[in-house]
Amino acid sequence: MTPMKKLVTYYNLSKEELGKVIFPTKEQVRNAAVSVVIVVSVITLFLALVDLILSASVSSIL
Questions:
Q1: Is 53 helix (H, G, I), strand (E, B) or coil?
Q2: What is the reported pTM?
C-alpha cells in the first residue's frame, strides 16, 4: 500500500469516526459548567473552614 493510499484511508476512517461522535448540547455544557463551579466552591469553602480551624488551634497552642 502506497503512502498516499494510507493517508486517504486514514482520512476516510477518521471522517467516519467523527460522524459517530455525539456532541453535547449547549444546555448540557452549561449544566456541567454550573455543576463544576458549585462543587469547586463547596470544596473551597470546606478547605477554608478547615484551615481556619487548624490555624486557630495551632495559634492557641503556641
A1: helix
A2: 0.65
